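Progress against Task 2.4 (sequence-to-structure conversion) is shown through the following example record, which the project officer requested during the mid-term review.
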Amino acid sequence: DILWSRDTCPPVIYEFTPVSGPIEGGTNITILGDNLGDMAVADTHIVRVRGHECTLVERASDLNKLVCRTSPSEVAEGLVTVEVQEQSAVLGYTISGTGYSTLHFSYMDPQVTSIS
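Structure tokens generated for the chain above:
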């Protein structure tokens, strides 16, 4: 459920790409949504993939887009979440809460089986 009030709104995730990456981590994920914040910085934003921290790429992020780099994980899949606690100077209200993806990100361990 999205809880809106007159002065506070939560972040919302519409989609993200790519939807999979290697277990070693290092995949840049682009998250698109609303209320993702004016200034995406580690002090105000926490992005997680499957509960693991996804390091924010601050210079590539803006109001409707966040970019983060995955950390290592075992083979598994899980939700992408964005937690924001920010007073938005641009929007004029506080962004507070956690947004959840509807799709899962998959950590994969690709194996080469043959070369031809």
